[in-house]
Amino acid sequence: MDRFHPADTPVAVLTTQPLDRALDYRAPAGGVTDGAFVEVPLGPRRVMGVVWGPAQGDWPVEKLRAIARVLDVPAMTPGMRDFLERAAAYTLTPMAAMLRLALRIPGLGEAPGKRTFYGQGTGQPDRMTDARAKVLAVLDERAGDLFGATELADLAGVSAGVVKGMVASGAVLQTTQARDGDFPPLDPARPGKPLAPDQAEAADALRADMAQGGYGTTLLKGVTGSGKTEVYLEAVAECLARGRQALVLLPEIALTAEFLTRVEARFGARPAEWHSGVTQAERRRAWKKVAEGQARLVVGARSSLFLPFRDLGLVIVDEEHDTSYKQEDGVLYSARDMAVLRASCEGAQVVLASATPSLESWANVESGKYRRLDLTSRFGTAVMPELAAIDMRDETLPAGRWISPKLAAEMQARLERSEQSLVFLNRRGYAPVTLCRACGQQVACHQCDARMVEHRFQKRLMCHQCGETAPMPEACPSCGVAGKMAAVGPGVERMAEEVAGLFPEARVAVLSSDLFGSARSLKARVEEIAAGGADIVVGTQLVAKGHNFPKLTLVGVIDADLGLQGSDLRAAERTFQLMRQVSGRAGRAEAPGVALLQTYQTEHPVIRAIIAGDEEAFWAEEAAQRRAAGVPPYGRMAGIVISDPDARTAFDLGNALARRTDALELIGAEVFGPAPAPIARIRGRHRVRLLVKAPRQAPIQAALAQWVGSVEVPRSSRLSIDIDPQSFL
Ligand code: ADP
Ligand code: ZN
């Protein structure tokens, strides 16, 4: 139960300011409860905070400053406060940073009332300028959305004056609307699709969990197209029918559109949406309605785990193995693990859905922490594609070509039958390396220890680490010789060129994340392709994620060995998952599919496991190896990255850490490094890594905190701790 603190009693307020503890304040007139969102004076400013309980210090109450304002929004629930504290402790994140994730919401302190919004108009500007054209482009892209003037101006990269100046001509629509309206009710009683027997069984099990209440996690495993979504929508229906709230996490914004349509078909209305592609006004509305308990279903990205649900009953993590669930910036957390944590704080059920679950989830099923439900066949007549390797050592290819004659012949056959083929290469851009044939120098980024990647469609070189771009040089930046710059190795754009050369009549579509300005334009293209608007699709891992192409019957993987290089402990797991996901794109409808994997390592255990399709054997083998090595999920790991503009300083700090590992030794942990990170410099900062390995049950967080706390971090340095790292770059 939340405590009530009468006026003038001392309370602790946690703020989003980088302080290491909550501050004490005096409760305002009228009092305040735990969890209340408040504004408090801090120095000369006012900052946002949340009442976190009784005061911690023993300051005389007269000396405390009073809470300036209590915001008119529902208080943060005990479950949410518990979640933030436990998430902070798990990820070794300061509470202030954790709270910021929960308060990332525009205009929280503002009253509801009416506000002026701007959107797409029907007229044309009286005079066209570059700035106006930019505004029109944004509005065209996001037709139907309403923005604040500043928000729209920021998106277009112009001043708010430009936006307002376009109202009179009707090119921009100006409208005053009430904020924060209710979401339309969802009707869980509407019937779903009649389920196949294995689907019905899984749905019954999930419904029974919902009915019983309390926390539990289920791994819902089934090949692409087996109806996992249909099944978990039944759990959502049960959750809604019980008056509780549900959250569906998707790994990719581009997938939300299709999902929203399915929700609408199932429950008669659209749910709330929460991701970076949603307008500020819509985000604010979603936040408030979730806090009030009015919005019952949210579809969102990982940050929606920090929404203020009143009574969260169910969290779905779709494509739970997806690496994009790991937040790699700022607060480092795994949305899958945080979903489970949040659910356990709220007494909610979790469903992790995947065709290729992570080894972590696999191990949690094995140890009895998660329950597992299987959907064994594809729905209806569709069958899993036939998989085969193409041994590239037997294929002869001219230099600068990557499509084997065998694969080309299969593609030709698809063209003749008016079926689609997918050429898959998980590498963006035209070529990974650009070098000078005169001096041999490769073009590298100035700020990073990385090569510049040619993006021919955009006619620029780009650094995939920092995003820096540069025009394609005519002359070598090193030796100055002109006309000798050459592309080395393939990227998707180059594959598209090869495909066009081989099949001049074919309509070729390229799907790569950098080629689409927005989720909306990507979705439009995907729909066009699904409807038959292309003969050959050339794509990166973007195509592996859930899109449905009914006419696609052939998948050709250009370089199945690509992900197996490097020292990442999950290389085998990732390759296995990706290859299965990509292969799963073939043969969704009546026509059976084939997936061909070009490889130079036909005997490699991972390649053989993929071809054999014996998942259980693969996972058992992978698990045995990890267990023997004591690495996740059978051991704990933490990655430490130190960065500094000066390499020496970064190394000194790394060495200082390596010298005093007593706290870690006490829990049986080992420290490796310091070593230069594989990407030794990003944005001008030199990077040094240490890796900590500990036994499964070791209290790693406490030991890490003590260890890192024992050294002084220079002001210029940054030190980040990544618990359960996914990336080792
Ligand atoms: P998954 O999430 O496992 O990839 P989906 O739930 O998206 O599978 O199902 C794949 C396709 O099959 C979808 O178009 C879906 O509507 C259809 N489908 C699955 N189960 C049924 C069912 N019981 N009745 C009708 N269509 C179904
Ligand atoms: Zn760079």
Word description of this protein:
The protein has 729 residues and is an alpha/beta fold. It has five domains: 4-102, GIY-YIG endonuclease (3-Layer(aba) Sandwich), CATH 3.40.1440.60; 114-178; 197-375, P-loop containing nucleotide triphosphate hydrolases (Rossmann fold), CATH 3.40.50.300; 386-427 and 490-622, Rossmann fold (3-Layer(aba) Sandwich), CATH 3.40.50.300; 635-723, Ribosomal protein S10 (Alpha-Beta Plaits, 2-Layer Sandwich), CATH 3.30.70.600. It is 30% helix and 24% strand. It contains 20 helices and 33 strands. The strands form nine sheets. The chain has a seven-stranded parallel sheet, with helices on both faces. A six-stranded parallel sheet has the order 19-29-28-20-27-26, with helices on both faces. Helix 3 (130-141) crosses helix 4 (149-156), helix 6 (197-212) runs parallel beside helix 7 (228-241) and helix 15 packs parallel to helix 16 (605-612). The longest helix has 16 residues, at 197-212. It is globular. It starts with a strand and ends in a 6-residue tail after the last strand. The model has no long low-confidence stretch (mean pLDDT 89). The site of adenosine-5'-diphosphate (ADP) has 14 residues, from helix 7.
